[in-house]
Amino acid sequence: MLLPFIVLIGAMFLMTRSAKKKQAQAVEMRNQMQPGSGVRTIGGMYATVKEIGDDTVTLEVAPGVHAVYAKNAIGAVLSDEEYNRIVHGDEADADSDIKITGDAVPDDVSSLTEKDDASDAKADLTKKAEPAEAGAEAEVKDGKADGDTDAK
């Protein structure tokens, strides 16, 4: 009866210990940030560190565009090579296993679709009158034509 309780306590201890270790590694990684470092936020945005405060960091998300983020919003501090490869599209080193040739993703989808003459025709969205009503005028219901209301 006592054995399952001890196993449960042991499992909880191991889980909290590993979580604390991961948190300490994240704090250490954030402390290694310096102005000029390339980072990835937890939202997946790549930026360059401009200023570091106590709890905040100012990131340059585009040339001349600065945003203030909480330090714990930084998901990873990237090496210069990795940041330049991802953000600027620099080619991989010659000794790297990854080889980038040409465009990985086309600039537009026109090369992914076939040209079809039928697709150039526009859809006819006009309202067609039914043959029985084609020559008839609007019916009068309760002394009102279609579309008339009691609103004044």
From TrEMBL:
Per the UniProt record, the source organism is Streptomyces solicathayae
Instruction: Write down what this protein is called.
Output: Preprotein translocase subunit YajC
Topology of the protein relative to the lipid bilayer: Single-pass membrane protein
What family, per the record?
Answer: Belongs to the YajC family.
Q: Which gene encodes it?
A: yajC
Report the subcellular localization.
Cell membrane
Q: Which Pfam family, just one, is annotated for this protein?
A: YajC
The answer to whether keyword Transmembrane applies is yes
Q: Where is the composition biased (Basic and acidic residues)?
A: 113-131, 138-152
Taxonomically, which superkingdom? Bacteria
Entry's InterPro entries? Preprotein_translocase_YajC
Q: Which UniProt keywords apply?
A: Cell membrane, Membrane, Protein transport, Translocation, Transmembrane, Transmembrane helix, Transport
Keyword Protein transport assigned: yes
Start and end residues of each stretch annotated as Disordered: 97-152
